[in-house]
Each structure stands twice: as C-alpha cells, then as structure tokens.
Amino acid sequence: MPVKSKIGNEWGFEGVKAQLQKKAAANGAASAQVFFQERVGADDLGLAITQAIRNVTSRRSSQSDIAVGRINRLSKSVAVRGDVDTIADLLNEQNVKAVLPSEIDDIYPKPVE
Amino acid sequence: MTSQEIRRTLSDVGYAKVIAVLKPDAGLSLDAARKDLSANFITPDEEQMEGLVLSAKTFSSRPTRRTVDTPPKMKIYPRLGLALGFVDEGGAAALTNDSRVSKVVQAPELSLIRPVAMSLSQEKVATTWGIKRLNVDKLWTQKQLTGKGVVIGHLDTGVDGTHPDLAGAIKAFAEFDHAGEQVPDAKATDSAWHGTHTAATIVSRAGARGSLGVAPGAQLASAMVIEGGAVIDRILAGLEWLAGEGCRIVSLSLGLRGYTPAFEVVITALRNLGILPVIAIGNDNANSSRSPGNYVNVLSVGAFDSADEVAGFSSSQRIRRTEVPLVPKIVGPGVDTLSCLPNNDYGLSSGTSMATPHIAGLAALLLEAKPSATVDELENAIVRSARRPKTMAEGRANRGVPDGLVALDILLGDTTQIAQATMKKRVKAAKPPAHSKRPSK
C-alpha cells in the first residue's frame, strides 16, 4: 500500500501563528476568522466565540483583547481582531475547528506559463 | 526527541519532509556513510514523485542530466552540513538518535508566487479545443443543451459585464470590499482579468472569436472576492451571498495551499442547499493540493492539455483517508484556454483555474437536461463519465476526462452513449498495432 503523501501542516498552530504575525499591524493586532465545529449551532456562534475567548484569556491569565466582528452562519465562522497569541490559542478550544488569518496572499492558483 | 511539528505531520500523513543538521565531524564524504544515513529516508508516493520528475524534464531549459527517473531518497549538502528528505516515524526517530546528526527539523514549504500568465489572442475559432474534447459541442448540437435556466455561482476577481460576449450572461453581481463588506449597487467589473476569463469559459455567448463558453445559455451570479484585503472574510461573505442567488453550481478557482478544515462546514452547507462545488485543485505540481479543492465532498478539478496529457503544473495528491484518497477527482481542459478578457478583449491562459469553469459549465448543461438532479447525481454523472487516456497516470488524473454525452446518459439513465463509449474502447484495444507481424504458420 503506497505511503500517503504529505498534506502539510501550514494551517496548524505554528503555521497560523506565523501567518498572523506576518500580517499583524504595528500594534500587534491581527484579523482572523475563527471556524467552529459542525456541532455548534449557527444561532450559538456569538456565545461560542465569547466563551472561547474567555477560556483562552483565563488560561493565559490575560485581559480579553479580542474584538468580535461579523458572524458568518453558513460557514459557522466569526471574524475577530486582536492579539496574535490569543487568536492562535483559540485553535486549542475544542469547539474551534480552524483559525485562518483574514489576509492571505496566495489565495488562488495563479495561471502558469 | 522528534519535534512536535514533525510528530503532528507524521501522525496526519504518514511521513514528513525534514532537514537533518549534520555535525561537523559527520564523516559523510565516504559513500558508505552516506548510504547508511540514507537508509533513514524513504521515497514517498511513487506516482507523485514521477509527476515531479516529469515536470522537471518538461520545464527544464536544458536537457536534464538526470539519468534515472527516480529522485534520490536523501540529498546531502556537504558545504551546508545538511541532509534533506522524507522520513516515516521509524526514520525520524533513527535520524534524531543518529550520532552524526545534531538536530532534525521540519523542512519549510516555500510558497512560490507564480507569474501571472495570460497572452492576448487574435485567434478565431468555431469553438475551443476544450469544449470539443468534453463533447460539449455535441451536447449543444445533438441535445440542444445550453444551460438555459441554470445559475452558476462564481467567486473571483469580478467580471467585466460590458464584454459583448457576456451580454445577458450575468444575472447578479456583488462586490465585497477589502473588509468583506458588500459594496452597494456595484456594477459588474473585474479588478484584474482572471474573473472575466473564468466567467466567460462558463457562460460566454458566441462572439467575435467563436463560441468560447461551455454553457452559453446559463447565467452567472458572480462576486468579486479576490485579491487583497481580508480575502477570507470576502470569500465567506461571497459564499453566503451566492447561497441566496439560486445557484445550483459554484465554480471556485481559488484555495489555500495544503489542507485546512476551515471550509468543511460551508462546503457541506452548500451541498445541503443543493449546490455542487466545483473547485480547482491548484497549480503547484504533483504532490500538492489546495483546500477546499482537496476535500472529499467537492468536485476537484486538475488540468490537461490538447495532447491529452496532464499539465505539469496541475496539482495532485494522495491523502491519508479512506474516502477520496486521491485528488483531483477529474481533469478538465486547462492549457491555452481561449476566453474573454476585460475591455472587449480575448486571451489564452493556463491553469486549473481554467479547467474548473469547463466542468462547472458542463454541470450546467446536465442540469438543464435534468433540473431535478441532486448534487450527488450530478457529480456522479460527471465523474462516472470520465475516462483516463493512456497518456495520463492515474496518480495525476484520477478518473480522467469527463465526456459530456456519456455524463448525460448516466444522469438520464440512458445507456446508449455508455455502450458506444465502451464499444469504442474495446475496438481500440482489440485492434493490432500497425507494425505488428502476423504470426508465422
């Protein structure tokens, strides 16, 4: 049976944190989308992000310095902006499926020669 | 101890690409020592590696000096004191404990920004090679299918609604600004050219240069969501908007390198809404793919050329999962595709971005024939119609090239075309080669 090919870990904790840092403003704030697991109801996303941020800041013993933006019901994701480390740490929340930086340079396969 | 990142990759995919930093006294000038160290490395998926070697030969500016077709398991850089290659779990542990190695780190995946390649064209055609290859022209003439009544979702750089070949083709347009907010009363414009090119491949009407659109009777709901700014927010907003525009298909020539589960929920939601996601797999050569194109529940599309060969740049990847372990599912015409450009112009471009709208357009033709078709039925018809020519390796093309006529028959439950396609294959297989000798009596 052939060995399966590398998927890559670009979007794991370290990868996401690096991307967020790259795009962070001078004050260290970055924008991201937090994607929740299927089990989180679309009507519960506001509560879910609040709880997730609370858990992280409690774990980090820090103030909540994350601003919550638009809620996307179809993708079960929420826009956030704030401290890079806190945002990246949201990946460790069990209800969080993924975190992506909002700004990504390489977003589509560029046409080739 | 193996690093956490390497352990995670090994757990996810079975092996990882690593750099072993060698101690100064590693003594690897001797072939025996090199061979011994090399034993810790493995050759990953053979077909993907063959694809990379083929790409190297194709794109090399001079004849390659490589005398064998298999890349070495380990590359040594003696001046840098580094060894590079793939390892499995056993190899990673052995390498970490090797007395000649000071540390083992995960090799970074560098992201090459490919040049945007598009050339203006004065070419005039009856229709494109890609449309003919998919038997789409026969769906037009023999089955009178044009995609009429079908709305296809299109997220890209926008679309130039003033192009004559797109008159009447854009049902709705939305622009999402760099913050992801919808711009009120936006007119159909293209912030670059890519969107016009892909849109026209789906729905352009017959024009000055010929019939370049696969589904000239269909319409687009198109949104400008790339490039620049908070693209993720823009894309998600675009998908939400599309869901309310009556789309049955969405054509996405975009994605993130590697694998992220971020879009799994929205892709499933689209399917549950009866929308078939048709998504480009990427232009990063063999052994690569992009998300969401590499998801199980999308119709992922690679690219092939007019010689029936998978394009060297077309991504393909085996993934450690039981369902859809190989992506893309199919390939579409994606080299030297003639389509519309902004400002009443035309041009050729190549990429899986060009292949994807071909398949989205094909899906629209099939939906016109059977509007009640479910997403699964539609996708199954396209995938089951596909045949892989001998010029394409399975690891690069998977099911191969769809056939519009066969797909239609599968969707409608008619076996005529399927039987004809099977008969053609049998006749071709039975026919002896021209140079073969008759056996002597």
Classification by helices and strands of chain A: alpha+beta
Largest sheet of chain A: 4 strands, antiparallel
- Report the order of strands and helices of chain A: HEHEEHE
Number of helical elements of chain B: 14
Number of helices of chain A: 3
The fraction of residues in strands of chain A falls at: 15-25%
Spatial sequence of strands, sheet with the most strands of chain A:
2-3-1-4
Residues in helices of chain B, as a percent range: 25-40%
The counted number of beta strands of chain B is 19
The rounded Rg of chain A comes to 15 Å
What does this structure look like?
The complex is a heterodimer of chains A (113) and B (441). Chain A is of the alpha+beta class. Helix content of chain A is 29%, strand content 25%. Chain A has helices at residues 13-23, 45-60, 84-89; strands at residues 29-36, 66-72, 77-83, 96-101. In chain A, strand 2 (66-72) and strand 3 (77-83) form a beta hairpin. The termini of chain A are far apart. Chain B is an alpha/beta fold. Chain B has 14 helices and 19 strands. In chain B, the strands form five sheets. Chain B has an eight-stranded mixed β-sheet, sandwiched between helices. Chain B has a four-stranded antiparallel β-sheet with strand order 2-3-1-4. In chain B, helix 7 (194-203) runs parallel beside helix 10. Chain B is globular and about 70 Å long.
Short structural summary:
The complex is a heterodimer of chains A (113) and B (441). Chain A is of the alpha+beta class and 113 residues long.
Keywords summarizing the entry:
heterodimer; A: 113 residues; alpha+beta; 4-stranded antiparallel β-sheet; 29% helix; 25% strand; disordered N terminus; B: 441 residues; alpha/beta; 8-stranded mixed β-sheet; 19 strands; 32% helix; disordered C terminus
Secondary structure elements and their pairing?
The complex is a heterodimer of chains A (113) and B (441).
Chain A lengths: L12 H11 L5 E8 L8 H16 L5 E7 L4 E7 H6 L6 E6 L12
Antiparallel strand pairs in A: 1-3, 1-4, 2-3
Chain B lengths: L3 H10 L2 E7 L8 H8 L7 H14 L14 E4 L4 E6 L1 H9 L3 E6 L11 E3 L8 H5 L2 H8 L7 E6 L13 E7 L5 E2 L10 H10 L15 E6 L6 H13 L5 E4 L3 E2 L6 H9 L3 E5 L9 E2 L7 E6 L12 E2 L7 E2 L2 E4 L3 E5 L3 E5 L2 H18 L5 H11 L8 H4 L6 H9 L3 H15 L11
Parallel strand pairs in B: 6-9, 6-10, 7-9, 10-12, 12-14, 14-17
Antiparallel strand pairs in B: 1-3, 1-4, 2-3, 5-19, 7-8, 11-13, 15-16, 18-19
